[in-house]
Write a structure and sequence with these properties.
The protein is of the alpha/beta class. It has helices at about 20-35, 45-50, 75-95, 105-115, 170-175, 215-220, 225-235, 235-245, 250-275, and strands at about 5-10, 40-45, 60-65, 100-105, 120-135, 155-165, 175-180, 195-200, 205. The chain has one domain (about 5-125, about 135-215, about 255-275): Class I glutamine amidotransferase (GATase) domain (Rossmann fold). The protein has a nine-stranded mixed beta sheet, sandwiched between helices.
């Protein structure tokens, strides 16, 4: 019997920029509903471009990546409304009613870290792009969303900004845990970015793109402009390596099949408990 009324708000923070993330998330949500017999409805909100922010009536919120600075938007109307929504959902979760589940991706993850003061947000020395290794922390080995992923596991990164210097005191204060860090670079004296945080039992976020699929990434990388950009920045060998990694079923396909579906599983179980 389908689970009634699981309503998902898909928050588009791409600011009108072309992207594969929205397509991939739509496909992932559709496949999850079909595979699990979940009566799932999705409404999309163009947060940055059209200042569309949903109310707090949804059970699930998935907030995407996007271009630009996660700092410069502070104080803008859309940013204020977005942050107010997150605070409203947080307060609802502290009550005894039904819970609200939020997944933050990339740009949204950076904004969430800004909201909660969990680290220093800054530009990277150079952009990160491609299929990269992600390392679990001690807390990450106990994270249900990462169960059955190897260490390191692989995920798509596409970012110019990062969150570094975890504020452990603030994390302890709100009950957050750092679940993953970016790849180890022993010869490079730079701080490693935070890659995943459990903000609360109901809020989770990743700096990487767990929704990314080989189809979208291949389409993106094979565009002449992007291909030339990647080769110019990283070299042809790195470009070919990116394409090869997309074909490996143990890399981004595995990450995509586990992280967000398990987040949805958590929401479904919570809804079942509320209905019962």
């Amino acid at each position: 019997m389908p689970i009634p009324g699981l309503r998902v708000a898909l928050l588009d923070l791409n600011d009108g920029a072309p992207n594969q993330g929205m397509r991939s998330l739509r496909q992932l949500l559709s496949a999850y509903a079909a595979d699990n017999g979940v009566d799932l409805s999705v409404n999309e909100f163009d947060v940055r471009k059209k200042n569309q922010v949903p109310d707090s009536s949804y059970q699930v919120y998935i907030s995407t990546g996007g271009p630009g600075s996660p700092l410069d938007s502070e104080g803008l109307d859309w940013d204020n409304r977005y942050c107010a929504l997150i605070r409203d959902l947080e307060q609802i979760n502290l009550s005894s009613g039904g819970k609200k589940f939020v997944f933050f991706i990339c740009h949204s993850f950076q904004i969430a870290c800004r909201i909660y003061g969990l680290g220093a947000i800054c530009l990277r020395k150079s952009p990160a792009f491609g299929v990269m290794p992600v390392h679990k922390t001690g807390e990450g080995f106990n994270e249900p969303f990462f169960r059955d992923l190897p260490d390191p596991f692989f995920a798509v990164e596409s970012r110019e900004w990062q969150v570094i210097r975890p504020n452990r005191e603030r994390m302890a204060e709100i009950g957050a845990s750092l679940c993953a860090l970016e790849k180890e670079r022993p010869r490079i004296p730079l701080e490693r970015a935070m890659m995943a945080i459990r903000f609360s039992p109901w809020f989770f976020g990743t700096q990487f793109h767990p929704e990314a699929d080989p189809e979208g990434m291949t389409h993106y990388l094979e565009k002449t402009e992007k291909m030339n950009q990647v080769i110019r920045q990283f070299g042809e060998q790195k470009y070919r390596e990116m394409l090869d990694r997309l074909e490996d079923p143990g890399m981004i396909c595995l990450t995509r099949s586990l992280v967000i579906p398990r987040f949805l599983d958590q929401a479904v179980v919570s809804l079942q408990e509320t209905v019962c």
